[in-house]
């Protein structure tokens, strides 16, 4: 561990962080998803970065998407320096020219000298984005309220006969359409092929129709665990880390169903014209080094985007729980996982958002 820390410090120093002081540091505005996830970033990234550089970080929350970034860029009034986004938004924002390119050569090597480009997991580095975590949309239930008849498959989520009660779903098409098709018997490798056809989209919405009257919609990641705790729903989709946090930090009797999990990446992007672009780049390099990503995994059950970080995953920083088995990519959890197809969503998101909103209004 000491060798890792020494290597990390050396990498940081090589990037010039040592020359930054509180005297010349400007605040950095970093935007993320709030709750337990932002807390994990504050503990693993923000606080050590501020201690090292003297740069104060203003943390802001949002609910995802590119609308606010695009509005700032088009107005010529960019106030955000760095934003944590989903992969499809990173790709689309880059294509639309509203994000700054990121030179991957600024990223520090792994402790053993492996270049960053070879240490990051496949598909985690993009022209305008650098990934930090692997996360999943799963569904969960309260074991105390469910009783002996516990759901175990994605089909169970849509089965209101054997599992009556309200469901929580994120208010949007992403993950919901995939899960609907999986519940309807479509194999994982056929989901996105089917969703590229009108018949496939109709089939997904027809499956969602079967539970529409029982759905309570959520938008912020903090809502699903609260909805479960309040008994507002009997089961809900959620970000896996939010449910884990409720289990680990609040002792909630929640259970995650990993069947049909839709896994994704979160990545750092810099809006075009960000006022503190260089400091944002410094933060990207610092926060995605081997040790920082392993440190974040001590606060929330999201997998680090670098291979060299995985062996350093230990116990939860407060609850003392062994974190490795709770990662979306743990072998026992990953058997029926489906990866979010970022190219599909980059191409079809606007169209499917429109279709979803029209369906919701019916």
Features of the shown structure:
D-Maltodextrin-Binding Protein, domain 2, single chain, 362 residues, alpha/beta
Descriptive overview:
By secondary structure, the chain is an alpha/beta fold. It has two domains: about 190 residues, Periplasmic binding protein-like II (D-Maltodextrin-Binding Protein, domain 2, 3-Layer(aba) Sandwich); about 160 residues, Periplasmic binding protein-like II (D-Maltodextrin-Binding Protein, domain 2, 3-Layer(aba) Sandwich). The chain is built from 15 helices and eleven strands. Strands 1, 2, 3, 4, 5, 6, 7, 8, 9, 10 and 11 form an eleven-stranded mixed β-sheet that branches. The longest helix has 20 residues. It is globular, with a radius of gyration of 20 Å. The N and C termini lie far apart (about 55 Å).
List the helices and strands and how they pair.
Elements: H1 2-14, E1 28-32, H2 35-53, E2 57-61, H3 67-75, E3 82-86, H4 87-95, H5 116-119, E4 125-126, E5 129-142, H6 143-146, H7 154-157, E6 167-170, H8 176-183, H9 191-195, H10 198-209, E7 215-218, H11 223-229, E8 235-239, H12 240-250, E9 254-269, H13 277-287, H14 290-296, E10 303-304, E11 338-339, H15 342-361
Parallel strand pairs: 1-2, 1-3, 6-7, 6-8, 9-11
Antiparallel strand pairs: 3-9, 4-5, 5-8, 5-9, 5-10
Helix pairs in contact: 2-14, 4-15, 8-10
